[in-house]
Amino acid sequence: MAENQVENNELLLTRVFNAPRELVFKVWTDPEHFCKWWGPKGFSLNVSKMDVRPGGLFLGSQTSPEGHVMWGKFVYQEVNAPEKLVYVQSFSDEEGNTVRAPFNPNWPLEIINILTLTEENGKTTLTLSGGPINATEEERAAFEGMRPMVQQGFVGTFDELDNYLASQQ
């Protein structure tokens, strides 16, 4: 399989935001904005590094309302402002080394996310597709088994984004 080819258990989500595409792209790529909305409701995000360019790295930690901290990273593959952002997402340690997910030893080490933005009449349609890459059968099965939870997590994150965009206009 070609590297970064999304496998057949791809996730596909679409959401329309009442905001111009340039603003939606900016809040995905500017750490001052990204830290204020990314993640589930009630979680906080600390951005350690955000270098949005092909080969660049995002490194950050999320803290749950109970104080549990998880680190993660994105390695940017494609950055085409303001219409496309492609990154490989992984759990990591504080230094950015890829680690296994704390909640499932079979969770895929790498998940590609392909974000596309289109604008019509001042509204932006965000499409997010992706899934495990370079994954074992066990990792693909773990992702598939948790697909409803992953989708629900993104719905909550997109709700946070929607609220944040409203505050920026």
From TrEMBL:
InterPro entries: ASHA1/2-like_C, START-like_dom_sf. Residues 18-165 form the Activator of Hsp90 ATPase homologue 1/2-like C-terminal domain. Belongs to the AHA1 family. This is ATPase.
